[in-house]
């Protein structure tokens, strides 16, 4: 139980630090909070609503990993390094793909709700 408690505290600390230091994390947390009630209106079923919320949560997960990569890279060197720049770009691309996926899920659910599917 102690290990679980410590892991929970570490996770809370990491999320709090990311929230304080990264605008993108704040925006995605706000989007997640907004998605909770909106998903119940758009989702044709309870499972679809859960899927919509999970899609937004997935974007947050990828953003947190991208933020961790960027913070680690900046800790290694603040000098411009071509390879580190590429690594940061790949992390950003991962966030972009996650956003596209989430957007596709939400668009599909909206089309489904409006009866076009």
UniProtKB/TrEMBL annotation:
GO BP annotations listed: phosphatidic acid biosynthetic process
Keywords (A to Z) from UniProt: ATP-binding, Cell inner membrane, Cell membrane, Kinase, Lipid biosynthesis, Lipid metabolism, Magnesium, Membrane, Metal-binding, Nucleotide-binding, Phospholipid biosynthesis, Phospholipid metabolism, Transferase, Transmembrane, Transmembrane helix
Subcellular location per the Swiss-Prot or TrEMBL entry: Cell inner membrane
Entry binding sites for a divalent metal cation: 22, 70
GO cellular component: plasma membrane
Active site: 63
Protein residues bound to substrate: 3, 24-28, 63, 92
The keyword Ribosomal protein belongs to this UniProt entry's keyword annotation: no
Top-rank taxon, per record: Bacteria
UniProt similarity note: Belongs to the bacterial diacylglycerol kinase family.
Function noted in UniProt: Catalyzes the ATP-dependent phosphorylation of sn-l,2-diacylglycerol (DAG) to phosphatidic acid. Involved in the recycling of diacylglycerol produced as a by-product during membrane-derived oligosaccharide (MDO) biosynthesis.
Designated name of the protein: Diacylglycerol kinase
Organism: Bradyrhizobium neotropicale
């Amino acid at each position: 139980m102690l290990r679980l408690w410590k892991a929970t505290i570490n996770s809370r600390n990491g999320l709090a630090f990311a929230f304080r230091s990264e605008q993108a994390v704040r925006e995605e947390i706000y989007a997640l909070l907004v998605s909770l009630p909106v998903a119940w209106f758009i989702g044709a079923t309870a499972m679809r609503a859960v899927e919509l919320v999970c899609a937004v949560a997935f974007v947050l997960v990828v953003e947190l990993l991208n933020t961790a990569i960027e913070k680690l890279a900046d800790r290694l060197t603040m000098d411009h390094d071509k390879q580190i720049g590429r690594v940061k770009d790949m992390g950003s691309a991962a966030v972009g793909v996650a956003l596209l996926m989430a957007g596709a899920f939400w668009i599909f659910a909206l089309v489904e709700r409006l009866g076009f599917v």
